[in-house]
Amino acid sequence: MFRYALNLIKYISFLCFTLSSEAKEVKVVTEYLAPYQVNNADNSLGGLSTEIVQAIFKQANKTPNIIALPWARAYETASSEKNVMIYSIAQTKERLERFHWIGSLINEKLYFWGLKSQFPEAIDDLNQLKKFIVASARHSNVAHYLKRNNFKHNYKLVKEDQNILMLFKGRAELIIATELTLKHNAKKLNLAFDELIKIKEFTDLNSDLNLAMNLQSDPKLVAEFQRAYTEIKAQGVINAIYKKWGITEL
Questions:
Q1: What is the pTM of this model?
Q2: Which of 185, 178, 132 is nearest to 159 (CA)?
Q3: pLDDT tens per residue across span 76-118
Q4: What is the set of domains in the chain, with CATH numbers?
């Protein structure tokens, strides 16, 4: 009888813990970066990547508490707080062992961009570009690359979507971004995208934008989200979101 009562107490405790764990929100940090993460008219967070993340959470029967922050704060939060997720984060060599990787959200192709008035034609020699001022967000994969490859003239930004503005204001001579992002930001800021030129493809940093988790996160929770990602991808959910945003499957 005593053993039965003890087992019953253990079962109830386990059940309460499980229900509490399932009901608990998971903190997710990101930045505003169109079209991946955008501020909707009603101030809710939307965007291509956000929709994929929401689909993953729905499949995992979890609730996301998504907070939009400047990228440097988002990165530091996800690096230091257990069970915190971050997106859309590039999966680089430097970051590979710093996070648990849930799954790819989209592949991006990055380019050096400048104003046509300053750069009438493309430049293929990377060393030539090192003499120009390059704007990038702190703690971004671009900023890490520039530092590692001895780009001395860097303009550090708090928010990634400020880069095109710095270009038009003359505070930077080069920026690095995808065409899709720049078109969205140019439209939002009422700037002329046609005045920009692709100077060189940034092949060293072409990578997958991912959903990742803090390295100290609960392994079971990580596995749940990895499984949910695999399931929605197999179901065609991710491809459907691409098509909604006018992007073919990559």
A1: 0.69
A2: 185
A3: 999 999 999 999 998 888 899 999 999 999 988 889 999 999 9
A4: 2-107+208-244 (3.40.190.10), 111-205 (3.40.190.10)
